[in-house]
Design goal:
Largest sheet: 2 strands, antiparallel
Strand content: under 5%
Radius of gyration: 23 Å
Strand order of the largest sheet: 1-2
Number of domains: 2
Shape: flat
Number of strands: 2
Helix content: 55-70%
Length: 338
């Protein structure tokens, strides 16, 4: 970190961008390694928490590879927390000051700590499927907050403005809620089927086939809404970043749906289940990207919403955003008078 004239360490925009990206990647990684713990049956490789055994905080040779896998996931969880802590400290030391980032940075750290506590509780209750499901969903919430923090840092200290009509913005929120619901149902399917994390772990007792069908129906709803969203944006001439984010979301959803169908028909092989978990993270990130694309950030102050005379920024193919009314019709850009 650079040092201010007063001798205090400070954090610049470049460092903030690196740390927030590292936090985002780390939160995806902990989901994938957690899935690896479950798929290898290592969920109780360390049979207690916070110690790995009653006598040791680390794995022992007698615990074998299962203990190493579970302990490795715990170590990564600590690393995720340290990255979140470093990000929060950098935000507090940021120059120029970014007070809009403090709540998000604190939220990421708090959720990572809470997620670790729930993970420990899941070991204590012998991998109860509902506690394990809560553990995963908290990871998704932490991922959403980490993504929001990363996007805000990239945008800089700016004001927000909608780039789509209010009804379309509401549809984007509906799609986000449905996407989150798909993730919730996915955890129920997981808790009802095999790959419990340990041979003796309990199951929800729900019918796996019925839960899989309900999950598939929710995925079909999500894809349908996302395709409709893409067509709606095209119809009203929405900015290219929003249309592109919608297209990416549809492609990722279709790929994830294909993996889900194949893994179901092939009796849930470990490799495909792992790919499906990565796909779940990518669908969620694509959903968040779609939601963020409905707004733009622009410099605060009197220059906001204006362009320089003679600039091409407002050209029809530039991707520039325009104010929109509730009926989806763009208003003309108003140039500043010289």
């Amino acid at each position: 970190m650079p040092v201010s004239p007063s001798g205090r360490l400070t954090a610049g925009p470049a460092l903030l961008r690196r740390l927030t990206l590292a936090s985002l990647v780390a939160n995806v990684a902990i989901v994938l390694t957690g899935g690896g713990v479950r798929l290898t049956g290592s969920g109780l490789g360390c049979p207690t928490w916070p110690r790995c055994t009653d006598e040791s905080y680390v794995t022992t040779p007698e615990m074998g590879v299962l203990g190493i896998i579970e302990f490795g996931n715990r170590v990564l969880g600590i690393l995720v927390g340290l990255i979140a802590l470093a990000t929060l400290l950098a935000v507090l030391r940021s120059r120029p000051r970014r007070s809009d980032l403090r709540g998000l940075a604190l939220g990421v750290l708090g959720l990572v700590v809470l997620q670790g506590l729930i993970g420990g509780a899941s070991v204590r209750v012998q991998l109860n499927p509902w506690v394990v499901a809560l553990h995963f969903m908290l990871s998704m919430v932490a991922l959403a907050v980490a993504y929001g923090l990363w996007r805000r840092v990239r945008a800089g200290g700016r004001t927000t403005r909608d780039v789509v009509a209010r009804p379309l913005r509401r549809l984007a929120l509906v799609i986000t809620a449905v996407s989150f619901g798909v993730l919730v149902l996915g955890t129920v399917v997981t808790g009802s089927g095999p790959h419990a994390g340990d041979p003796d772990a309990g199951r929800t007792g729900l019918n796996p086939q019925a839960m899989s069908q309900l999950h598939a129906d929710s995925v079909a709803l999500l894809i349908g809404l996302s395709v409709a969203w893409w067509f709606a944006l095209r119809a009203v001439g929405a900015p290219r970043p929003a249309v592109r984010a919608a297209a990416v979301l549809v492609v990722v959803e279709l790929a994830q749906g294909l993996i889900g169908v194949v893994q179901y028909l092939t009796d849930l092989p470990v490799a495909l289940v792992s790919a499906h978990m990565l796909g779940a993270c990518l669908v969620w990130l694509a959903t968040l990207s779609m939601l963020w694309s409905t707004r733009t950030r622009e410099p605060a102050g009197p220059e906001s919403g204006t362009t320089e005379p003679g600039s091409d920024a407002a050209g029809p193919d530039s991707g520039a955003t325009r104010p929109v009314s509730d009926d989806g019709v763009e208003r003309p850009l108003v140039r500043a008078q010289p």
